[in-house]
Design brief:
Blueprint (H helix, E strand, L loop, with lengths): L11 H22 L10 E2 L6 E14 L2 E14 L3 E5 L6 H9 L7 E11 L4 E3 L5 H7 L4 E4 L3 H4 L6 H13 L5 H14 L5 H5 L8 H13 L5 E5 L7 H18 L2 E5 L3 H7 L2 E6 L2 E7 H6 L4 H8 L49 E2 L5 E2 L15
Helix pairs in contact: 5-6, 6-8
Length: 385
């Protein structure tokens, strides 16, 4: 009897076949992306709703690894309205950061590729499909119209350049025309003061390793806000900060959003921050949006069992319990996703029909959507995919 292979084991032949196939697919994507003199008409598009700053439409972002294709973002659709904050929540590895990196065109290529869907960016007088934009055009957009506060400030700041040089570079690149070095330096110091760094002149001359985690995070926020962008992606911007500084940073982001009428895509695990900051909430699980709605709808009437589990797992002030709730089981293998609801094996609320194919999107109110068989009926069964 043949010995059974361990789970996840790949023979040398199989690994070579996967690598060869990956190279063929990624080379085709890269060839398309590296073309020169791409006409603007190729990436011009129309916003489905002109009141949105960004629209993610059926976005698929895959990573072509030696073990197989990881469907990191698998059909994500949601909108970020102008002047609003959209909170994106979900456990680690659900595709939150990859969704935002797809918008910034900062995926680790050639392995990471947007294979399907559109990301429509509202430029005011026109709209661009970011997934089709060439690199040189994207460089004008990135940092200027869309900027990102990265999750890990120690790795996003260059360790061999002083803080001032790194912030100066952003301003010089996008808004440097007609400005002297002294003008740019004054703007950088103004930004450092704006994010609550008291010794801004001293910090200007320092290297990243001379600052604490919280100070580095503030510098990253200052860099992201340097050009007053229309869309700010905040990827867990308060992770390295203590609670009093967290509150200051959230106030800073909120005030800036109101001042320049920018939109914020706020990625976090902290439901308390979402309740305070967000106007809309998108709940992601295993690369898909399982529920989305206004912050009031999601917090007062969570519909998907995963959202209900997230709400139950957060501590409540004044409520004494022996043990915090945790969702049982684990996320399915992203290389081999099941052909039914991804949450089914962890769900404690299964109903007849859950063993069928992945559930469609069901509309509960004009702004509240959920993908779950519990809300199927004759009226809305087989809604949007």
């Amino acid at each position: 009897m043949a010995k059974k292979k361990a789970e996840g084991y790949l023979s040398g032949r199989e690994a070579r076949r996967i690598a060869k196939e990956n190279r063929r697919i990624t080379n085709a994507f890269e060839k398309q992306r590296k073309r020169k003199n791409v006409p603007e008409s190729e990436y011009l598009t129309q916003m489905a709703d002109p009141n949105n700053a960004v629209e993610f439409d059926n976005l698929h972002t895959y990573f072509y690894t030696d073990a197989g294709v990881v469907k990191s973002v698998d059909g994500v659709s949601f909108e970020v309205p102008i002047g609003k904050t959209v909170g994106v929540v979900g456990e680690s590895g659900c595709g939150k950061s990859v969704t935002s990196l797809s918008l910034m065109q900062l995926l680790q290529r050639p392995q990471g590729q947007v294979v399907e869907g559109a990301i429509r960016l509202n430029m005011g007088d026109k709209a661009y499909d970011v997934t089709k934009m060439p690199n040189e055009q994207m460089q004008k957009i990135r940092g200027n119209y869309v900027s990102m506060i990265f999750q890990e400030p120690m790795t996003s700041l260059n360790p061999v350049f002083r803080i001032g040089e790194q912030v100066d570079e952003v301003i010089a690149l996008h808004h440097g025309e007609g400005k002297t070095k002294e003008d740019i330096k004054n703007r950088t110091i103004e930004l450092l003061e704006m994010v609550g760094i008291a010794n801004s002149q001293g910090v200007y001359q320092m290297f990243p390793h001379e600052l604490s985690g919280g100070m580095r995070q503030r510098v990253c926020i200052a860099m992201a806000l340097a050009c007053s962008p229309k869309v700010i992606i905040a990827d867990e911007p308060t992770t390295a900060l203590d609670v009093t500084i967290q509150a200051q940073v959230l106030d800073l982001l909120r005030n800036l959003k109101n001042k320049i009428n920018s939109s914020i895509m706020f990625i976090t695990h902290d439901l308390g921050v979402i309740a305070e900051m967000a106007d809309y909430v998108v709940v992601m699980y295993a690369g898909r949006v399982v529920e989305k709605g206004t912050v009031h709808e999601i917090f007062s009437n969570p519909a998907h069992p995963y959202t209900i589990g997230l709400m139950a797992s957060k501590p409540v002030v004044g409520k004494k319990i022996d043990k915090l709730y945790s969702i049982p089981g684990k996320v399915p293998n992203p290389i081999d996703m099941p052909n039914y609801c991804y949450f089914k094996d962890r769900c404690e609320m299964c109903v007849p029909g859950c063993e069928g194919e992945y559930p469609c999107k069901v509309q509960l109110s004009p702004t509240h959507f959920v993908s779950c068989y519990r809300y199927y009926d004759n009226k809305n069964q087989g809604g949007e995919g």
